Amino acid sequence: MDTEKSSSSSFEDLTNAEDTKDIRKVAAEAASGDGTAADNAATQTEKLDTELEESDAECDILGNKQLIKRTIKRAPKEAKTPERGDLVTINFTGKLDSGKVVEHEEGFQCHVGDYEIVQGLDMVLPMLQVGEVAQVSVDPRFGYGSIGLKKESDSEVIVPSDANVCTRLLAPLNFIKQYVCFPQLTYEIELVSVKNEDFADLKSFEIRRKYGTRKKERANFFYKRLEYNTAICLYKRALDFLDTRDGDPDADFDHEDLELSNSDTQILLDDRLIVYNNLAMTQIKIAAYDAALESVEHVLRCQPNNSKALYRKGRILEGKMDTQGAIKLLQKVATLEPENRAVQSDLARLFIKARREEHNEKEMYQKMLGQAKKMEQKTATRQKQPLVDNSKLKLLGYLMGSILIGVAGVAIYRYKY
Question: 231-251, pLDDT tens digit by residue?
């Protein structure tokens, strides 16, 4: 086919364009010629390398200026890049626009994609290489959002919410203008190391409990922030590590038990039941009652008198419109914890709700019975109507018969006499 542009094509033929030639190839060709041409080619090569470095130095990851990565220090050639699920060690410092340091960690370890650091950094990690240092500007959407970040011990604000009303004085007009400003978080992050853990690395009790506890605590953090979906993901990740079975697909027996002592197994089981309880509560918050019921049943199979699990199962049954079942469970919790005022309050509320439901049910039945009686009356009326007509016809027949007999009698009498 002709190399020229086709009349039906929307692409231009750029095979002969000067700006598409490989500058390095030109430099190599010119090196065998005169020195002037070689110098010019070398200059062009340096310019190209500078442009490439500048283009790599800043990267607008999403294309909307909400997540920007700037390279401060390049990684060595062929350095490793982390993938989702890899264990990474990082150093990072987070600052506000004012320069206030809000986060600082040295030798911090986390799994890529497990929400263990601020979302903006978690998204950037797969773009870093070991040894690289980068500056990351994070919009509140991928930072701490509309809630911000506060210290757990007190109400001191570490990171403000994403919508703060700022005041500015316009000097020439002496006019005060209020506008919404969005505080940016700027992080300087260094990727120290990357480790792709295999199943052999995850068979020790210490590692499993360490990772499981870390995921659980991070899930609790998101639960307090009302970010329930993220909390659910982390609780499930915690359960993966707190399991006493081997998940290695290459094992001789699928999901065979790990070689743990009885005490270690009991500790992992206790931690696992706590996570299941927390997971059930989080699922209740988003009205995922079937999933919550499955989670709480895991606890009750091992601990039938676990008051938290019984209470949460009662909440689940209430959400599934089984008020009587919820009352029975809360009564059991009240016997286990007689001083728990919250349970007593919920029981009183459920009793009132049960009476109201019973009253509404009776009214519904009465309405249904009333309608049934009306239908019976209408049916009886329709059945009686033909009987009345038949009696009238019979009476008319009797009258006509009597008249005919009388006429016949008179006719016979006249005929004889």
Answer: 999 999 999 999 876 544 444
The confidence score (pLDDT) of residue 152 equals: 74
Three-state SS string over the chain comes to CCCCCCCCCCCCCCCCCHHHCCHHHHHHHHHCCCHHHHHHHHHHHHHHHHHHHHHHHEEECCCCCCEEEEEEECCCCCCCCCCCCCEEEEEEEEECCCCCEEEEEEEEEEECCCCCCCHHHHHHHHHCCCCCEEEEEECHHHCCCCCCEECCCCCCEEECCCCEEEEEEEHHHCEEEEEEECCCEEEEEEEEEEECCCHHHHCCHHHHHHHHHHHHHHHHHHHHCCCHHHHHHHHHHHHHHCCCECCCCCCCCCCCECCCCHHHHHHHHHHHHHHHHHHHHHHHHCCCHHHHHHHHHHHHHHCCCCHHHHHHHHHHHHHCCCHHHHHHHHHHHHHHCCCCHHHHHHHHHHHHHHHHHHHHHHHHHHHHHHHHHHHHHHHHHHHHHHHHHHHHHHHHHHHHHHHHHHHHHHHHHHHHC
Q: Is the pTM of this model over 0.90?
A: no
